[in-house]
Specification:
201 residues, alpha/beta, two-stranded antiparallel sheet
Amino acid sequence: MELVLRDKQNIVNVSDVVFNCNFNEALVHQVIVSYSSSSRQGTKAQKSRSEVSGSGKKPWRQKGTGRARAGSLRSPIWRSGGVTFAAKSKNYHQKINKKMYRGALRSVFSELIRKNRLLVFENFSIDKPKTKLLVSKLKSINISDVLIITKKRDDNLFLASRNLYRINAKSINIIDPMNLITYKNIIITSEAIKQIEKLLL
């Protein structure tokens, strides 16, 4: 499969196995749900009536006082009592096999190419970590709402993009399906796409 470089009159050859496979919607959905669930902290916790501090003694006798019967100071209906259905810490992690994860990435990249949302450049960089330089460069190619993927972390791109809305820069070792489907356009360097090809074959 041949992809045209946007900044040079040249092409880059990539594998059809990785970048021209059928879109597996069910697999991508499962991986996205797993990624979202695993990012939840799950640290919310409340105390039930058995965990709050307080005496276990019956506050007053059962009959004859004219008051409602009570068996514990820690009852959920009392002030400073326990919570009836107390929330507990929970691990929301959902395991995804490496083969499934790679399959989802192949599906997403192939779909991005089919929809002309993946733009390949020989080199995409700026001289200084200045936001206005990045904005000017993106405006010159009429691109917005974009994720820029490089082989290694580019500090200039990272620092210039972190204060911009819907513009981000990442290296290939920290991309995931959620990033790829979140942005309207993906800019990737030829070095990065060849490295991704090696990882996903």
